[in-house]
Write a structure and sequence with these properties.
Distance between the termini: 22 Å
Order of helices and strands: HHHHHHHHHHHHHHHHH
Largest sheet: none
Mean pLDDT: 82
Low-confidence stretches: 488-501
Strand content: under 5%
CATH class of the largest domain: Mainly Alpha
Organism: Streptomyces polygonati
Main location: membrane
Pfam families: MFS_1
Membrane topology: Multi-pass membrane protein
Number of domains: 2
Subcellular location: Cell membrane
Structural class: mainly alpha
Amino acid sequence: MPETLQPDPKRWTALIFIALAQLMVVLDATVVNIALPSAQADLGISDGNRQWVVTAYTLTFGGLLLFGGRVSDLWGRKNTFIVGLLGFAAASALGGAAVNTAMLLGARALQGLFGALLAPAALSLIAVMFTDAKERAKAFGVYGAIAGAGAAVGLILGGVLTQYLNWRWALFVNIAFAIAAVIGAVKFVNEPAQGRNHSRLDIPGVVLASGGLVSLVYGFSRAESDGWASTWTISLLIASVVLLAAFALVESKVKAPLLPLRVITDRNRGGVYLSLGLAIIGMFGLFLFLTYYLQTVMGYSALKSGVAFLPMVGGMIVGSTQIGTRLMLRVRPRLLMAPGFLVAAVGMGILAQIKVDSSYAEVLLPGLILMGLGMGTAFMPAMSLSTHGVRPEDAGVASAMVNTSQQVGGSIGTALLNTLAASATASWIKDRAGAGGAKSQLLINESNVHGYSVAIYWATGILAIAALLAFFLVNAEVQNHAERVDGDESIEDFAIPVIAH
């Protein structure tokens, strides 16, 4: 039996640049959200087209992640990682230089395309480079902290760039991130040769999966703007079910599937994808409503509202790199994930108590800290388990699945919770407006805060369900040694870390 390869001596330096690339992808969405009002005014983007600045990115990113994951398996993770970085930088430059709406939307779609190559390649590179259980726990702790905190960091960076430069720098800043990550990747990232998949690309699978995921994400986007009962919304959601069902059928028949069903039918990986997707639904709702609350009700500037999220960022870093990493080698993953999601739910429940005149120190601060600690603690084992027991040649597509669950969860969360908030706000203001329909600013603020609170309560319940699913579905043992991969008796032929089954 071949000996297991020695760990790459440059792996920790490589992790810095892999994490930098992941940070760029994660914070891009919130950086652009903060800059969007300025971009809309500058380019004359209509209110109807405004949502497409965000949707063009999420559609291509979420829809093509499985394709990107499989490309990294076939072409090599390092190659895919570098191409994704260069493409993302070029698309960001195009968007920053945009002179009209179409140019900006096209650039955002290209960012999504190259992000779909980059994100799964980054995660699977960690999976194949860190083979020691303790080191792997630390590596995924760093990655989990960045993945969780990147959105909040984006709020701060977006506020600084928009306030002190202009909205175009919210896109141009990606060029610096990408160039630094490319230089680091070329010099320090070394991918083990054993993990390459030499089969052909499953074109029918690519078409069906991408079509199904795009229909799902777009369907929820239309639900947010047109309502759940609109013809467009219903048609798109039905189309997504049909396409994804056809995709599952095709994958069970073809010789070299885009997504081998063994990747998602494993109890632990399936539990991670499902529970993490639900948790992201709640988390995206929190960012959305607290950002509006801080700016429109509390009167915070874009920069100050970004800084207000820092306690959650700190909590995520502590939860991921200290609590999660230290306990991952001592307790079962579900005993980190389920309590982590529950602590986050408690924090969310505190944040649901917001009022028009709430104190930041009494309500928002404890809620944000608990949210960060909980999500950080749960994120780290979830990221690690996303490649639980996979064959090396499937590492990219398994990594893509955890990214897909986050993207789809984020899209569903934004649409679902925004709809719930809007309905609660409309009902509140209808019941309390005067006979003449007069609406004072105080009444408007109270109705908006009521809507935010209702949506955050729903997010609290969703996080609690995520905790239950993590506890009952994930049954992996303590992650302090390696064991059997899918369909084989030993991992010693493979340079990939796996979790005990």
